[in-house]
Amino acid sequence: MDPGTQQKLIDTAAIPLDTQPRDIVFSPSSSTVQVLWSDGHCSTFEDSWLRDHAEPFLIEGRSQFTPKLDTVSNEDPHLGGGIPRPLPWTAEMLEAQAMFVDYGDLQSSDADVRQRSLLALSNNLQLYGLAYLKGVPCEENYVLHVANTISLAKKTCYGDKFDVIQEAVGSVSHLAYSGKELDMHTDLNYREKSPGLQFLHCMELSWVKEKTSVPGDKQGLNIFVDGFAVTEEIRRTDPSAFHVLSSTPVNFSMRYKEHTYTHQVPIICMGSDEEVQEVHLSNRSMAPLQLAPSMIMPFYSAYKRFNDLVRDRRFRYMHQLQPGELVIFNNRRVMHGRTAYDPTAVKRRLQGCYSDLDEFMSKYRSVLLASQASGDTPSSSSGKTSGV
Asked: How far is CA 55 from CA 21, 49, 60, 66, 345, in A?
């Protein structure tokens, strides 16, 4: 082990497969275990390290194993731990949570206030795949500032950031830039790896008409659906549909200016532990199926079942972003959409950007470590700093 970087120097693949422990000595005074190997090498392990890393072999099923926070230390920065498990939610469940964190607290000169607000925001994002800030200045690039505070902003073909704003009728370059309803979807499924997080900052929302056929507070509502909750429901109620959606590659493609992208990925992506890791959905960018004829009807039947659940009001959390509010969501878990609005009656501008999920998780682990040192612990209620 290199003492400076704590990275391995030994070549694991070069260790003979018949290497066996020759002697094992436990030292109670130092809480360490010393192993003398048959090739003469001597290893020393802290007993807590052995206990933490042996846990997957001592319980049934790796999916139950969540590394402990104390497996992370400044001396061993490459280990994850203490990460709360995601909580699938329905709209009713989420409405009972206090989802908003004050941006002023995130920028406070008081380190404790700043730390607690960052922990609350990060916990909400990890638990629910969704988090909100309020009080963000309605000025350019604040969305990038927030993204770089909890993660690292990612440049795409749309630039470092993008504006969701009404374009002139007849010259709309993207459906998001019209007043039309947007079906539930995840973004950039046509990329090799779609961005893990999306940030949307409401910079303007005003009414240029006092009277409209639809009340202003019902126009342009943001809708969010937890893909983990929907996939949990479909696995429980229709296992065959779940199997089709998790085993059938789907082509997604998009042309934007001089860019042409295409990628193949199932709508439901599973991990080695048989748990759902990602959800990909976009009717607008889903290309024609390339399947055997016998699979066409089973796929569309499962696809319809999935979309019926996505449109079920039980799963649809709706909130109209107000100026100064910023929403962050896991783009590979939480599907998002928008109700229609009358662009002649409503002026609406959002500024958005993306980041990779691993950048967020890296910073989140640091936040958890700092919180552990100060006595705070992550929990499902730690995001309750202010009401919706």
From this structure: 20, 10, 10, 9, 59
Distance, CA of 144 to CA of 152 (rounded, Å): 9
Structure tokens at 243: 């199997």
Q: Report, as ranges of residue numbers, the positions in the chain whose pLDDT lies below 70.
A: 1-2, 4-7, 52-82, 167-174, 209-217, 375-388
**Hey, which bits of the chain come out as E strands?**
21-27, 32-37, 42-46, 100-102, 130-134, 153-154, 162-165, 182-185, 197-207, 222-226, 250-256, 259-265, 268-270, 276-279, 316-319, 326-330, 334-338, 346-355
Give which of 342, 324, 79, 225 is closest to 234, Cα–Cα: 225
d(CA 33, CA 27): 6
CA 77, 371, 94, 138 torsion-angle sign: negative
Q: How far is CA 349 from CA 147, 204, 206, 212, 346, in A?
A: 18, 5, 10, 19, 10
Query: What's the one-letter identity of residue 245?
Result: L
Residue 172, SS3 per DSSP: coil
pLDDT of residue 346: 80
CB 367 within 8 A of CB 122: yes
CA dist 101 and 110 (Å) reads 16
The string over 1-38, giving b where at least 16 C-beta atoms fall within 10 Å of a residue's C-beta and e elsewhere, is eeeeeeeeeeeeeeeeeeeeeeeeeeeeeeebbeeeee
Alpha carbon distance 355, 272 (integer Å): 25
The length of the chain in residues reads 388
Q: CA–CA separation, 338 vs 327, rounded Å?
A: 13
Q: What are phi and psi of 271, to 5 degrees?
A: -95, 175
Q: Which of 190, 176, 192 is nearest to 281 (CA)?
A: 190
Which candidate, 310, 299, 364, 301, places its Cα nearest to that of 333? 310
Q: At what angle do helices 239-247 and 293-310 cross, to 10 degrees?
A: 110
Kindly state the DSSP code that residue 359 receives in the 8-state scheme: H
Residue 282 identity (one-letter amino acid): S
Q: What is the pLDDT of residues 264-275, one digit of tens each?
A: 999 999 988 889
Are 296 and 250 a contacting pair, CB within 8 Å?
A: no
The DSSP secondary structure of 249-314, one letter per residue, reads -EEEEEEETTEEEEEEE-SEEE-TTS-EEEE---TTTBPPP---HHHHHHHHHHHHHHHHHHTSGG
d(CA 384, CA 77): 29
